[in-house]
Design brief:
237 residues; alpha+beta; 4 strands
Length: 237
Amino acid sequence: MAAATVNEQLPTPLDATSEPPPLFDGTTRLYISLSCPFAQRVWITRNYKGLYDKIKVVPINLQNRPAWYKEKVHPENKVPSLEHNGKVIGESLDLIKYVDSNFEGPSLLPNDHAKKQFAEDLLAYTDTFKKTVFTSFKGDAIKEAGPAFDHLENALSKFEDGPFLLGHEFSLADIAYIPFVERFQIAFSALWNHDITAGRPKLAKWIEEVNKIDAYKPTKTDPKDLVERYKAKFLAQ
């Protein structure tokens, strides 16, 4: 069961004109962008575990990012990053595991060995999944992205106690995929008038069930903004 959710007002994203927070003062900070799917993974994890008071979310404006972020926080100058115990950690898949292991709140990995192993397989496939779909945008999108969505549909058939990727419990596997599936569902509908869940009933049910999770709802991207960005990025002639 998820921890209780909090109706949280996030601060305005920090930009090049913003002063840095009091870095390394003992506060644990999660640096995100409100539109970044990688950062969204860690944001969902933090919310699901009820770590509203333990991990402070600090949004960054990636289009006009502050110089101090690269200089003093994360030399790679990317989000997400987590400032914790005097160090900064990056990479979203590493971070969701780190937050799950190092903080209180409901565990996001099952004890069952087969499910744990399948979780690792699914996490390993995330790069292939998103690359396949993003590459498809430049070609016959519906046809070329099909195998990636079929892979998820098949994965959702692995355990009969669904509706989630590892069965009846929401997990890090779901968190790794939902930010991208969310965006792809919006994009295929708006740009190609295509429903990615057509002929994929388990995928449809999975999306429906994830959308009921309170920890996820406030992290969702703005669909209108997403469509405009994807049009500019992938469909510009």
